[in-house]
User: What shape does this take?
Amino acid sequence: MRSLRVKVLFLFSLAVLIPIAIITFLIVSISYRSLWKSIQREQTEITRRVGEKIYSYIESTRGIIVGLASIEPSGYNTGQVRKRLSEAMKISKSITEITIVDRQQGRDVIRAERPGRYVVFRGGTVDRKKREEFIKAVSENFYISRVYFSGQRRPYIIISCAGRKVVVIAKLGLEELWKIVENIKIGDGGHAFVVDRTGYLIAHPQKERVIAHADFSGLPPVKEFMSGELRAFSVYPDEANREKLISFCYVVPEIRWGVFTNLPYGELMAPVNKMVFQTSIWTLVFSSVFLFLGIKFVGGLLDPIGRLREFAHEISRGKFNTKIDIRTGDELQELAGTFNDMATALHELEELRQDLISMIVHDMKSPLSGIIGSLDYLLSGRLEASSQNEILTITKRSADNLYGLVQNLLDVSKMEDGKLVPDKTGVGINDLLKDVTEQFKLMADAESKGFETKIADGVSSVSMDYALIKRVLNNILFNSLHHTSAGGKIWLNVGHDDGNVLFEVGDDGVGIPEEYRTKIFEKFVQVERRRARLRTGTGLGLTFCKMAVELHGGKIWVESEEDRGSRFFFTLPL
Assistant: This one.
């Protein structure tokens, strides 16, 4: 006969272990799916970023070619045209040849080549009227060829653009893509590669495979890419059939190249397997504890655990603004408090993420709209040559603004990782201020805002990274310009301060509320300022300024009164 103790322990075991097993299964299943989806999104995003870098590389060359398409026939052999061709090939080192073709006659009239270090100009009588790059450019305004391989087995493409009078044809080498692929880090054992639409390799960390004109069309993910039946990811054995690889693909717009990122399946699944293992260990631990506590703790344990389970489900469904109240006076109460803290932190993080994404998209939309609008206007062909410089100036300003946003993101990341070392040289203060204030003075005048500079006697030069400090001054000056009303005043003063050079940028604008004066140099604090309807921007401009100044051994601070203006100070050691 079994004792009541045995029966109770048996029933207790069933009552405790079965719910624990169910809870663990649910948590593991939900966490497994969530973690796997998170990993999949991360790898997909990495692949997309590589593809967008490649697309941006092609787009930058497109912009150069479009600009050259405005050349008039009367200036074929002038020094000005040669200068423009030289400048274009200087801007893009990957352009090895540019040919100007008369649109009406279809013949080459001038060609710039770069056989070595220098650009060589040649005349030409090549008839291109029946060539694809000429026909497509004339009929569609713009053309990008398939990938060709040179005699040295180097990949290149042909890009052509039709203007009103001429067609510009450029040969673009793709070695720059090798650097993009080499510099991308994909886990510990992963890599990226790029194939053209026929499956031939054009970029790979192992350059010799590209030079050998390797055909990757036999790989399962490349087959899917070529057939147009892309899945979220593909799993297939490596070439040595030793391990499985998981591959993600991104199709580059317009040119239809395939960008692939490969990662060993075991490495990708390691966090998931670790989570399952740790969850299993903790399940065994809690099961042993519950069994040890005995029957009298059954009611006090199962109810809180069930509530925690439901709370975990709520969190997994994204309901971060919920709370759980457990008062048992033991670890379960502490665990409930930790869950509440976690839910609060996740709720704040989600709000920050949404605001930050909205803010960055908003800040990048304006310069992108300016660039696209200007280029569309240029491509319309309705502009006279005298008006094109004005449109190009607007495009350049918008591109500079967008580049500044991206550069702040990159430089702050580099400085946080300790990878940005200032290139210090002796810089004349007068030269620095002249360079910084020339453009700013024009913008201030255009907005009817006063601007003046003052340099104290004896301040001549200081050791600094010219580019970094120039950007610091630009960031602070444009910050003041943005927050100063028409008729207001902005000033830039330079003086001495206890063995340092002291820079002061001031304005009589809206000022900064007291609660934000100690936080404006913090990363992404701009989100909070936006909620308070104070300032706009990605929130990294002043963070970059602080880190750049401190990288030079200086310090930066602000003095401000709300509605009475602000004064930003920073020092650099002499």
